[in-house]
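Field log, afternoon session.

UNIT: design team B
ACTIVITY: writing a sequence onto a fixed backbone
BACKBONE:
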């Protein structure tokens, strides 16, 4: 992404990341000063695994179990996990949409991406963010809980945090108007 941004001469852009893409944005901001002028993080997590005083939401054993399930049965993992990740059980079509998206992903790429995502630790990178940052947190999110969003917010100097009314981990799908409204007010 930074290479593409440099190629097209990108400056002062707004980086919008969802989930693990938030940490990709954190790293991109550090690698390309001036390329991004604002950072919007939707459902961020700097680390998914609980660690001492840090609450990431999952034990290491839970993450290992999740990765083993994905390794052994990509389609079954997708069908079982996507509706849980989406939340919004009253709107099953959203879970189906996410399931279909997961199922279209190459299983080998999904396995490698999941391992890197769920085993990463970017907590130390947060304090290095030096541009205006907005953290959007869903009111209930099984993947990136409120304490996780609060950790990210408190770790990025001068960041703003907004708790969205929507639930689940994909507010871009479940409540796009709410997400767009808050982002417009920020940028």
């Amino acid at each position: 992404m930074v290479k593409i941004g440099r190629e097209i001469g990108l400056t002062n852009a707004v980086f919008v990341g969802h989930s693990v893409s938030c940490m990709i944005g954190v790293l991109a901001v550090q690698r390309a000063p001036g390329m991004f002028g604002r950072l919007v993080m939707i459902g961020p997590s700097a680390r998914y695994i609980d660690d001492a005083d840090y609450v990431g939401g999952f034990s290491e054993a839970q993450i290992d179990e999740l990765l083993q399930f994905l390794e052994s049965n990509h389609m079954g993992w997708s069908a079982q996990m996507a509706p849980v990740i989406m939340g919004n059980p009253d709107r099953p079509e959203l879970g189906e949409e996410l399931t279909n998206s997961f199922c279209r992903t190459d299983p080998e790429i999904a396995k490698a991406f999941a391992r890197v995502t769920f085993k990463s630790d970017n907590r130390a990178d947060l304090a290095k963010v030096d541009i205006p940052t907005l953290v959007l947190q869903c009111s209930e999110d099984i993947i990136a809980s409120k304490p996780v969003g609060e950790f990210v917010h408190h770790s990025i100097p001068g960041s703003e945090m907004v708790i969205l009314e929507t639930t689940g981990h994909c507010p871009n799908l479940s409540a796009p108007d709410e997400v767009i409204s808050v982002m417009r007010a920020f940028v």
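LOG NOTE: The domain at 2-53+120-186 is CATH 3.40.50.1820 (Rossmann fold).
NEXT ACTIVITY: expression trials, pending approval
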